[in-house]
Amino acid sequence: MKVTVVGCSGSFAGPASPASSYLVSVDDGQRTWNVLFDLGSGALGPLQRHLDLHDLDAIFLSHLHPDHCADLCGLYVWRHYAPGGAVDGRLPVWGPEGAASRLALMYHGLENGGMDKVFDVDRLHDGATTTVGPMAITARAVRHPVEAFGFRVESDGAVLCYTGDTDTCENLEPLMKDADLVLADSAFVDGRDEFRGIHLTASRAAQAAVAAGGVKRLVLTHMPAWNDPEVCRAQAEPFWPGVEVAQADAVYHVGPC
Ligand SMILES: [Zn+2]
Ligand SMILES: [Zn+2]
């Protein structure tokens, strides 16, 4: 399993990275399957450096904040209005309740059917597993001001966890447990952000990974441009020595593939 950080900036695109988007690719011996987790503001640009957009198999949206889904508008244009003709078929998109109508409003408005000519939008459910090629993708509801999900991706013994946006919650355990790689929201900073129920801090992310058990590698992500990544790393370090910080264009090879 190959994980490419297309974008990792929290809450809005930053100078060094677009907002959230992670490309997960698995070769099953016949072909490579490509699943995208979020397509936040600015992410469609660099995605085209990592992938021929024709080769995208599905998109999973953790939630409907624009830093996780805004660039579906650009992908709609690319699939529908290309001078050589529209791309055949509809791309499967999974998201929270209301994703189809939100996507409609983002582009043409509800009365014109929105983007449903291009995207086949289905609803995520807590604990449900969706299969895309060799990947088994389990969504778990997490703790954020809107309906939001984290994802556990399993393929041929490799396990990836992407928390989406969340504060500490009980579902982080089944999401993270025994994962080879955890991409954990670390938008908040201890001592600066006292609100609860929105984001993890780096220390809370590290403690969740410890509590889940069996996590092999922890990468802090979703840091807004106003964060100092070294401050966040230092806050996680007592709980997770060697904790890493996500960067745009980073590639992780997860598990045996
Ligand atoms: Zn976010
Ligand atoms: Zn959010």
Question: What does it look like?
Answer:
By secondary structure, the chain is an alpha/beta fold. It has one domain: Metallo-beta-lactamase, Chain A, CATH 3.60.15.10. The protein is 20% helix and 27% strand. A hairpin with a 2-residue loop joins strand 9 and strand 10. It is globular, with a radius of gyration of 17 Å. It starts with a strand and ends with a strand. The mean pLDDT is 96. It binds zinc ion (ZN) (2 copies).
Keywords:
binds zinc ion, alpha/beta, 257 residues, 14 strands, seven-stranded mixed sheet, single chain, Metallo-beta-lactamase, Chain A
Summarize this structure briefly.
By secondary structure, the chain is α/β, with parallel strands linked by helices. The chain is 20% helix and 27% strand.
Topology of this protein?
Blueprint: E1 2-7, E2 21-27, E3 32-37, H1 44-50, E4 58-60, H2 66-69, H3 72-80, E5 91-95, H4 99-106, E6 119-123, E7 129-132, E8 135-141, E9 149-155, E10 158-162, H5 172-176, E11 181-185, H6 202-212, E12 218-221, H7 229-236, E13 244-245, E14 251-253
One zinc ion (ZN) binds at residues 10-11, 20, 65, 67-68, 165, 222.
Overall domain count: 1
Widest sheet, order of strands: 6-5-4-3-2-1-14
Biggest sheet layout: 7 strands, mixed
SSE succession: EEEHEHHEHEEEEEHEHEHEE
- In the CATH hierarchy, what is the class? Alpha Beta
The number of distinct β-strands equals 14
Radius of gyration: 17 Å
Shape label: globular
Beta-strand level of the residues, as a percent range? 25-35%
CATH topology: Metallo-beta-lactamase, Chain A
Q: Which stretches are low in confidence, meaning pLDDT under 50 for 5 or more residues running? A: none
Mean pLDDT over the residues:
96
CATH superfamily: Ribonuclease Z/Hydroxyacylglutathione hydrolase-like
Work out the helix count. Answer: 7
CATH architecture label name: 4-Layer Sandwich
